[in-house]
Design brief:
The relative contact order is 0.07. Strands 1, 2, 3, 4, 5, 6, 7, 8, 9, 10 and 11 form an 11-stranded mixed sheet that branches. Strands 20, 22, 23, 25, 26 and 27 form a 6-stranded mixed sheet that branches. A 5-stranded mixed sheet has the order 12-18-17-14-15, with no helix packed on it. It has one helix at residues 131-139, and strands at 14-17, 23-26, 32-35, 39-49, 54-70, 79-83, 87-100, 106-119, 141-144, 148-152, 162-163, 176-177, 183-186, 195-201, 209-215, 219-222, 228-237, 243-253, 262-264, 270-272, 277-280, 288-294, 302-309, 313-315, 322-333, 339-341, 348-353, 365-367, 373-376, 384-391, 400-406, 410-413, 419-428, 441-445. It is mainly β. It folds into 4 domains: 14-163, Jelly Rolls; 176-253, Immunoglobulin-like; 262-353, Immunoglobulin-like, CATH 2.60.40; 361-445, Immunoglobulins (Immunoglobulin-like), CATH 2.60.40.10. The chain is elongated and about 125 Å long.
């Protein structure tokens, strides 16, 4: 039957703990046993013996892992054992853990106090056993001091005590997490670690564990948790499967009110100086928006910090050329009039740059008056160009004769009807910015008909005579 907080458990009770579950059991002598997720543990003996009433506690592990904190006691006959199919772990005044792998291997590690580990293959040696047998039994007992652990192989062989692998570095875990979709914590990998075991609890003593997991690397991932304050404990696992020293780090989850989404500009976009706006989505129920702009991704060098925008948009017309990052958050108005800010959205980068210079009329060089027209001008590496052509009397370019994009700063046309035209050019910069169109430049396309002196033949109005 399911157990509830405060239930009294009788001797013989078997606990089966599922995924993402955790049970803490307090024994009569004050010992706290934390049964981890996907574990099975039987309370085999829970009793007081003799007139002194010494506490005898024997726990039988069938799978999973447990951690126990045993308070110091002056009782000489107090007995506290955790048994697996391979080993017996006996303790007095200590904090330790025992894990049973799927392969059957048992591991034990000690944080405080001392632990005696004995192979169960030596069980059954009684008072009548020979001195040789007693000596063999004693030799199978290993004492673990604080900061040590060992492994018991599947054949019952007790490994030599070894120093626990160092605690992982949790200093990089943010003090506050704002991702509502997943609980993601990262610790750097460390030499000698083959895996990581981590728990998330509501209390610093880890009696209320909400998430537990084993991970191949330092990327710890769980289902999301509600907003609140939590503690994470991370232990590296060495090549023998022994869990190392724990690192405990507090953190806070704050996901509400949710942050807006970025709309404009797209990530990496270049905006022209003197123009542009940052725009993001609205969030139902939100009173204000906060938008920050900085010159670094860590937002230590803020250039804008608008904290109470009624709309999620911010003009950036006054920003000088440079690279920037922007992020935004939602704010609720709480009853006392103060603002309750949610997490910032992940930042995005954008660039502000000067528009490319508009081509002047003097920058255009033309060879005209012939049947073939050639233009060339100065450009910068990577720039492309948009060229438009209109008749000479269409200064507004209302009826464009030609609109083409060029990869090089030159243009040649040999199939235009004879006449006079206006040409203008726009610079298309690799940054995505576009210049204004250049002032129009007039060109003349000849007919190919000339006088004996080589001059083109024109009509009385000055227009070249067309080709037949």
């Amino acid at each position: 039957a399911p157990v509830a907080k405060g239930n009294k458990l009788d001797e013989g009770t078997a606990l089966q703990v599922g995924p993402d579950a955790f049970v803490s059991v307090r024994l009569a002598d004050g010992t706290v046993v934390r049964v981890q997720a996907q574990s099975e543990l039987q309370l085999r003996q829970l009793r007081r013996r003799g007139r002194a009433g010494s506490v005898q506690s024997v726990l039988e592990m069938r799978s999973g892992a447990v951690e126990a904190s045993v308070p110091p006691s002056a009782e000489a006959f107090r007995r506290m054992e955790i048994r697996t199919p391979l080993a017996v772990t006996s303790v007095r005044g200590t904090r330790f853990s025992v894990a049973l792998a799927e392969s059957g291997q048992t591991t034990a590690s000690v944080l405080n106090g001392s632990v005696a580990v004995q192979s169960r293959r030596d069980e059954g040696v009684g008072a009548s056993a020979s001195s040789a047998s007693s000596s063999a039994q004693a030799s199978a007992i290993s004492m673990l001091a604080p900061g040590q652990g060992l492994a018991v192989a599947t054949d019952g062989t007790v490994g030599a005590p070894r120093a626990l692998i160092a605690a992982p570095d949790t200093s990089g875990i943010p003090a506050t997490l704002g991702d509502a979709s997943i609980l993601a914590l990262n610790v750097p990998t460390q030499p000698g670690a083959t895996a990581y075991v981590a728990q998330v609890a509501q209390d610093a003593d880890f009696t209320q564990v909400l998430r537990h997991g084993s991970f191949a690397d330092g990327q710890l991932r769980w289902k999301a948790l509600d907003d609140g304050r939590y503690y994470v404990s991370v232990r590296a696992v060495d090549d023998a499967g022994i869990e190392g020293l724990p690192a405990v780090q507090p953190f806070t989850i704050k996901t509400r009110p949710v942050a807006p989404l970025h709309q404009l500009p797209a990530p990496g976009t270049t905006l022209a100086t003197g123009a542009g706006e940052l725009r993001c989505t609205s969030v139902p129920g939100v009173r204000w928006y906060r938008v920050q702009v900085a010159t670094d991704a860590q937002f230590t060098a803020l250039v804008k910090d608008e904290q109470r925008l009624s709309e999620c948009r911010l003009p950036v017309t006054d920003l000088p050329a440079g690279r920037y990052f922007w992020r935004m958050a939602s704010l609720l108005q709480i009853p006392d009039g103060q603002a309750d800010q949610g997490p910032f959205a992940p930042s995005q980068a954008f660039t502000v740059a000067d528009r490319p210079a508009t081509l002047s009329a003097q920058s255009l060089r033309a060879q005209d008056g012939d049947t073939t027209v050639r233009l060339n001008w100065q450009g910068q590496p990577g720039q492309r160009f948009r060229l438009q052509l209109a008749s000479a009397n269409d200064a507004a370019f209302d009826k464009i004769t030609l609109d083409t994009t060029l990869d090089r700063a030159e243009w040649t046309a040999s199939d235009l009807p004879a006449g006079e035209y206006l040409v203008r050019i726009q610079v298309l910069d690799p940054s995505g910015l576009q210049s204004e169109f250049s002032p129009p430049r007039q060109i003349r396309v000849g007919s190919g008909i000339s006088t004996g002196s080589g001059l083109p033949v024109s009509t009385s109005s000055g227009q070249p005579v067309g080709r037949p």
